[in-house]
Design a protein that fits this description.
By secondary structure, the protein is of the alpha/beta class. Helices cover 41% and strands 15% of the residues. It has helices at residues 5-33, 42-46, 73-82, 122-126, 146-154, 170-182, 196-205, 222-228, 238-243, 247-253, 266-273, 285-297, and strands at 57-60, 86-93, 99-101, 160-164, 189-193, 210-215, 233-237, 257-261, 279-282. An 8-stranded parallel barrel has the order 1-2-4-5-6-7-8-9, surrounded by 4 helices. Strand 4 (160-164), helix 6 (170-182) and strand 5 (189-193) form a beta-alpha-beta unit. It is globular.
Length: 298
């Protein structure tokens, strides 16, 4: 049954209140515990705000999905070796609460298994083949755990945007943030989510690990949405940005950044670069990097 506009507004107010309560609790905890490491600044994380026409940073989508099976260690390793600004991956929870790299709600598309990830245990997921569908050369490739991904990242100089898929509870967020901290990656990881409550829980766990709010549509007051989520900026669709190009300057004026997903040709890259967006998520990071270099030489 469709919801009424009034019920949608009530739900949004409750959601915003829940986020603010968690952030308030995080601030109180920090005050009680005393001094803590400084947060990563937007400039340290994603560089200076871009002027129209300046190259955006490149984020390799789902690891390196163009060269290896998406969200697998071979894909991540290839992207890190290529030296892109960021590797982007998706992380979701198994039935027994373990974080693994997976984009879809089901395992059907990217493994030889079937069913919803949330209904499968870690042991069941680890038994799946996540590579043969892409190319026989990758047969036997496993679905990596979040910890395995972090270990791979720690062995490089790379940085990562990690999308936390769905809604995460406090225990799952705590485990993820602890895993990041234990490997000294607090300043090289950005946690991103559509869910403001998940980001609020991450804020309660760490002042250092940065966050990005993912949006399908732009709310009227984007800056307030970013502040309520304690985020450094937004990840949003190209269509939404082109429909409201002034949002780039609004976010920049507030010290926030804007990342656009998922753009795979030069016409799309040109349109958003002309607005001064800060980052582009792409399935074709090699070509985007070459396109940026060629544009800079003209």
């Amino acid at each position: 049954m469709p919801r009424s506009a009034a019920s949608d507004r009530a739900r949004d107010r409750i959601h915003a209140l829940a986020v603010m309560c968690v952030l308030a609790a995080a601030s109180l905890l920090i005050a009680v515990l005393g001094a803590s490491p400084a947060r990563v600044s937007s400039r340290e994380l994603m560089g200076d705000t871009r002027a129209p026409g300046e190259p955006a940073f490149v984020a390799s989508h789902r690891g390196g999905a163009a060269t290896a099976p998406e969200n697998t260690l071979p894909a991540v390793t290839a992207a890190l070796a290529a030296g892109f600004d960021y590797v982007e991956v998706d992380v979701a929870l198994t039935a027994d609460g373990h974080a693994v790299l997976m984009h879809d709600k089901t395992v059907d598309r990217t493994t030889d298994g079937h069913g919803r990830l949330a209904s499968l245990t870690l042991a069941q997921v680890r038994a799946l083949d996540a590579g043969a569908w892409f190319d026989p050369a990758y047969a036997g490739t496993a679905v990596p755990t979040f910890e395995e991904f972090l270990d791979t990242l720690a062995g490089s100089r790379g940085r990562a945007i990690v999308e936390l898929k769905g809604m995460w509870d406090a225990a799952a967020v705590s485990a993820a943030v602890t895993a990041v901290h234990d490997r000294g990656l607090d300043r090289r990881i950005v946690l991103a989510s559509f869910d403001g409550r998940t980001l609020a829980l991450a804020a309660a766990q760490s002042r250092v690990v940065s966050r990005l709010l993912i949006l399908k549509q732009l709310p009227a007051d984007v800056v307030s949405a970013v502040r309520e989520a304690g985020a450094r900026g937004v990840v949003v669709s190209r269509k939404a940005v082109l429909a409201r190009p002034g949002i780039v300057d609004e976010l920049h004026a507030a010290g926030a950044r804007l990342v656009v997903y998922t753009l795979n040709d030069d016409a799309q890259w040109d349109a958003v670069t002309a607005l001064g967006v800060d980052g582009i998520v792409t399935d074709d990071p090699h070509t985007l990097s070459e396109w940026q270099s060629a544009d800079g030489d003209r």
